[in-house]
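We now fix the convention by which a protein and its fold are recorded. The integers have meaning only within a learned vocabulary of local backbone shapes. A record is reproduced here so that you can trace the correspondence yourselves:
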Amino acid sequence: MDEKKEPKVEDIRAAAKARGCRVQQALYYVAGFLEGPMCGRCFPCSLGSFEAKRRLENIAGGRGAEADLIALKRIAGNMLEASMCKKGKDTARFLLEWLETEAFRSHIEGRCPEGECAALLEYRVVPAECTMCGLCLAACRHGAILGEQRKPFLSGYLPFEIRQKRCVKCGDCLPVCPEGAIEVVVAAEPAKVGD
């Protein structure tokens, strides 16, 4: 019989560190802890880990608030004090260590410094670099790009732009643009204006 080997806390943490964003590291770790090594025998650990995952998803998804940071610190403190096993206490220590970084504050302010949290990024067309070829319009399966392809001897075209509410940040438009006129920016950054 082939038994599935349960991942260890250290293995999950090592895999989490492969991500550049601290919020993504913490989210990956907590999700992996919930799926694997957590035994679920004590409430501070099991309920705390579940609630921490929910708060981390809010922060990574651009919906985080100061209350999420306060709750995460409280949850990690309670887990550190009341968890019955080393795995729960280690999880609390890891959370507290990650929470000490500026990354969480940046996410609450709407920025992912490492550019890994898709909810905090925007795809934009730089008008000064766009030749209005229409390749991005054809590549977008979600109808997020608006504009008109340039035709010889005509004028008055609607320039290309990416409608942020429709954009799913799949990146299909990036490789097809021959001019490199589509950029990925932190959502809080102002748009570039043509020279």
The longest helix spans residues 43-60. Residues 9-108 form a domain with the de novo design (two linked rop proteins) fold (CATH 1.20.1440). Strands lie at 121-125, 145-146, 161-162, 182-186. The chain has two domains: 9-108, 118-186.
